[in-house]
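ugh ok fine here u go
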Amino acid sequence: MAIAIEGAAPLLEVWDVPTSLTFWRDALGFEVVSHSPPFTDAKDDFGWCLLRLNGVEVMLNNAYENNVRPGPVEDAARVKVHGDTCLYFSCRDVDAAYRALRAAGVAASEPKVAYYGMKQIYMKDPDGYGVCFQWRAEKAGSGE
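structure:
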C-alpha cells in the first residue's frame, strides 16, 4: 500500500536566513508563510522559515543554533558539499523564468535542452545549493 503524501518541504541549512531570503523571496518570488521568533528587530532576523510559491514549499534554517556562528565567514568545506544538492522545480515557461531571473540579477544559466528532453536553467542559491527550473522541451513555453 502506498503512503498518501500530499507534498514536500525540503529543509535547507543556510548560513544566514536574511541573506537566503534575498534569493528565495526577493528573486524567485517565494513568500514567507511562517517563521520562528526573530532574534532582533532587524528585518528577517529569524532562524527558520517556511516559504511557499504556487503550492511548492521550501524551508530555510540557520546552520547554527540561536544565530551563534563559529566565525565571521561560512566554512568553505561545509558549503562545498551543498553542490551535491539540487532542487528541481517544474516551470512551464523556462524562457520567461530566465528573463525574470536575469532581470533580478540572478546568475542563471541560459535555457538549454538536456539529452533527456528537459529544457532547463540552473542557478545557485547563496549557500551553494543548486536550483533548476525545467519543463519538457517539446512543451516548454507552450502552456501545456
